[in-house]
C-alpha cells in the first residue's frame, strides 16, 4: 500500500493509493457559527468485482463529538459500517455514493440545521415527482395591462423555476441528491457545509468509509484524492487553536524574562558558576525562541491556511534543540556532573547513549506528524512512536537521580560527612519529586483535561503544559542556583579542614 500525505495545515490535500482500511479519519475541526467545510473528492478509483461496489456502501460521514473529541457519535458504529445506519437521534450526516445511478445521497440524522450545498441532480426514480407552480404565461398577459403585472408574472415564473430546481435535487424521502461525475473510470464530487448557528457549533469529525473492505475473501481496494478546506469567521484555525498564536508569543516572553534573570544570577555569583549553569541558560533561551517560531507558524496557518515553509523549518530546528537540551540538562543535573564530579560513570554514559538517540527519534516523529495528514496510516504509526519514545525518555532521566540518591544514602553513613550528604540527599529527593510531578502533569493530567473541556477551551491544555514547564524551569534554577550556601554545590571537605574546625 502506498500513501502520500501532503499536509497544508487547514487546507488539506490527501492522496491514498491502493487503500484497504474500512474507516479513515480525515480530520477533526472545531467550528464556530458561520464556519464552513469544503470537501472535494477526486479520482476515486475502485479495484475488485463490480457487484461488490453496488451491494456494499462507500462514502463520507460527518459527526459531532460529544465532549472534547474523545467519543464521537459514530465511535460505536466503526465495527458495523455507519453508512448502513437505519436511524438515529444524534447529529450525523452521511454521504452515500451510488455508482449505479452516478449520485451521492445525503442523509441527515438528529436535529441539525447546517446548510449543505453541492451540485444536485434529478434522481433516477420511477415515481419521482416534480412539483410545479401554477402560473400564467407571460405571452398571455395583455399588452394593455400595467407593467407591474408583467413583472409579477415574471417573478412567479422565476419562483416556479427555483422550486422545480430544489425538488429535482431531492429524492422521494427528502434526501439531498448530489451529482457523482465519472471520468475515465474515476469518480468525482464535492460538497460544502456551513455552520449556521451557535447551537450547531462544536468539534466535527470527518471520516471516509470503505465498507466493502470488510467482506471476507475479497481483494477490494481503492485510490482517492481528497481536498478539504476548513474555515472559521476569524481564519483557518480550529476553535481550540485560535488563541494559540497569542499564547505562544506570551509564554515566549515569560521564558525570555526567566532566561535573562538566570543570566543575571550567573553574572552576580560568577565564582560559583559551573558549565551546567550556562547550559541551563541556553535551554531557557532556546525554549523562548522555539515558542516565537511556533507562534509565527500558527499565525500564517490562520491567515493563509497553511504554514510558510521557512518559518516552519525554523520552528522544527529550535524544537529539536529544545527537546535535546532539556533531557540532557536534566540527566546531567541528576548525575551531579560539573558540580561534584567531572567524569560520568559507565552506567550514566549508557543513559545518555539511550536518551539522546531516542530524543532525536521523538523529534523526527513529531515533525512527521506535523507535516502528515491524519488520514494516512503513517500518521497513526508515528503518533504511537512519539508517545512511546517520550515515555521511555521521561522514565530514563529518573535513573540518574535515583542512583545519586542511593549513592548519597550510602555515603552519609560511611564517609563521616553525614550532615552535608543528608542535605544533598534531601535536595535530590525534592528534585526527583519535581520531575515525577512534571512528567505526570504534562503527559497525563493535561491530556485528561484536554479531552474533558468544551471544544473551544482545548487550548487550555497547551496553556497548562507551558505554564508547568515554566514553573519547573524556575524551581530547578532556584534549587541548583550558584550560591555559596547551596548544599548541592558545596564540595566535600578534606579531613584536615574538619580537624581545623574542631580546634
Could you walk me through the main structural features you see in this protein, from its secondary elements to its overall organization?
With 503 residues, the protein is of the alpha+beta class. The chain has 2 domains: 2-132 and 166-231, Sandwich (Jelly Rolls), CATH 2.60.120; 244-495, Rhopdopsin 7-helix transmembrane proteins. The protein is built from 11 helices and 13 strands. The protein has helices at residues 50-55, 147-168, 244-268, 275-304, 309-335, 346-370, 377-396, 398-411, 418-450, 460-479, 495-502; strands at 2-6, 11-19, 23-31, 36-47, 58-64, 92-98, 103-109, 115-117, 176-179, 181-183, 186-194, 202-210, 221-231. The strands form 2 sheets. Strands 1, 2, 4, 8, 10, 11 and 13 form a 7-stranded antiparallel β-sheet that branches. It has a 6-stranded antiparallel β-sheet with strand order 3-12-5-6-7-9, with no helix packed on it. Strand 1 and strand 2 (11-19) form a beta hairpin. Helix 4 packs antiparallel against helix 5 (309-335). It is elongated.
Q: What is the count of structural domains?
A: 2
Structural class: alpha+beta
Number of strands: 13
What is the mean pLDDT? 78
Count of helices?
11
What's the shape?
elongated
- The succession of helices and strands, N to C, reads EEEEHEEEEHEEEEEHHHHHHHHH
Q: What is the CATH top level name of the largest domain?
A: Mainly Alpha
CATH topology of the largest domain: Rhopdopsin 7-helix transmembrane proteins
Largest sheet: 7 strands, antiparallel
Q: Whole-Å distance between the termini?
A: 82 Å
CATH architectural grouping of the largest domain: Up-down Bundle
Strand content: 15-25%
Percent of residues in helical segments? 40-55%
Rg over alpha carbons? 32 Å
List unreliable stretches of 5+ residues: 1-9, 68-78, 122-168, 491-503
Amino acid at each position: 500500500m502506498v500513501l502520500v500525505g501532503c499536509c497544508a495545515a487547514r487546507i488539506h490535500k490527501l492522496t491514498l493509493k491502493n487503500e484497504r482500511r474500512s474507516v479513515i479519519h480525515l480530520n477533526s475541526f472545531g467550528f464556530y457559527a458561520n464556519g464552513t467545510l469544503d470537501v472535494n473528492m477526486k479520482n476515486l478509483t475502485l479495484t475488485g468485482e463490480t457487484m461488490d461496489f453496488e451491494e456494499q456502501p462507500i462514502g463520507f460521514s460527518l459527526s459531532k463529538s460529544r465532549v472534547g473529541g474523545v467519543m464521537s457519535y459514530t465511535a460505536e458504529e466503526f465495527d458495523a459500517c455507519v453508512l448502513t445506519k437505519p436511524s438515529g437521534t444524534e447529529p450525523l450526516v452521511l454521504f452515500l455514493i451510488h455508482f449505479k445511478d452516478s449520485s451521492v445521497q445525503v442523509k441527515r440524522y438528529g436535529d441539525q440545521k447546517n446548510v449543505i450545498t453541492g451540485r444536485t441532480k434529478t434522481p433516477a426514480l420511477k415515481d419521482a415527482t416534480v412539483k410545479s407552480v401554477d402560473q400564467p404565461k407571460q405571452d398571455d398577459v395583455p399588452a394593455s395591462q400595467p407593467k407591474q403585472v408583467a413583472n409579477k408574472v415574471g417573478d412567479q415564473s422565476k419562483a416556479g423555476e427555483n422550486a422545480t430546481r430544489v425538488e429535482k435535487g431531492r429524492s422521494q424521502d427528502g434526501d439531498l441528491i448530489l451529482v457523482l461525475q465519472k471520468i475515465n473510470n474515476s469518480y468525482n464530487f464535492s460538497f460544502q457545509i456551513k455552520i449556521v448557528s451557535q447551537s450547531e457549533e462544536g468539534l466535527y469529525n470527518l471520516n471516509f468509509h470503505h465498507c466493502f473492505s470488510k467482506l471476507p475473501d475479497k481483494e477490494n481496494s481503492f485510490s482517492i484524492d481528497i481536498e478539504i478546506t476548513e474555515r472559521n469567521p476569524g481564519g483557518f484555525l480550529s476553535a481550540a487553536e485560535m488563541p494559540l498564536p497569542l499564547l505562544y508569543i506570551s509564554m515566549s516572553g515569560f521564558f525570555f524574562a526567566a532566561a535573562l534573570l538566570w543570566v543575571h544570577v550567573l553574572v552576580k555569583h560568577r565564582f560559583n558558576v559551573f558549565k551546567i549553569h550556562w547550559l541551563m541558560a541556553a535551554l531557557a533561551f532556546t525554549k523562548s525562541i522555539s515558542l516565537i517560531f511556533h507562534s509565527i507558524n500558527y499565525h500564517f496557518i490562520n491567515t493563509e491556511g497553511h504554514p510558510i515553509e521557512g518559518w516552519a523549518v525554523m520552528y522544527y530546528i529550535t524544537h529539536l534543540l529544545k527537546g535535546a537540551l532539556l533531557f540532557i540538562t536534566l540527566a546531567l543535573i541528576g548525575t551531579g556532573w560539573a558540580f561534584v564530579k567531572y567524569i560520568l560513570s559507565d552506567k550514566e554514559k549508557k543513559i545518555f547513549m539511550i536518551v539522546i538517540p531516542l530524543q532525536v527519534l521523538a523529534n523526527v516523529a513529531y515533525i512527521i506528524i506535523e507535516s502528515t495528514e491524519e488520514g494516512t496510516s503513517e500518521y497513526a504509526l508515528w503518533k504511537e512512536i512519539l508517545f512511546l519514545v517520550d515515555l521511555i525518555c521521561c522514565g530514563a532521566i529518573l535513573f540518574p537521580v535515583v542512583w545519586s540518591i542511593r549513592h548519597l544514602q550510602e555515603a552519609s553513613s560511611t564517609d563521616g560527612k553525614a550532615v552535608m550528604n543528608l542535605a544533598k540527599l534531601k535536595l535530590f529527593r525534592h528534585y526527583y519529586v519535581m520531575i515525577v510531578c512534571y512528567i505526570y502533569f504534562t503527559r497525563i493530567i493535561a491530556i485528561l483535561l484536554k479531552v474533558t473541556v468544551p471544544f473551544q477551551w482545548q487550548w487550555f491544555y497547551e496553556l497548562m503544559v507551558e505554564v508547568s514547564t515554566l514553573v519547573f524551569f524556575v524551581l530547578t534554577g532556584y534549587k541548583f542556583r550558584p550560591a555559596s550556601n547551596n548544599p548541592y554545590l558545596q564540595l566535600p571537605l578534606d579531613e584536615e579542614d574538619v580537624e581545623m574546625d574542631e580546634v
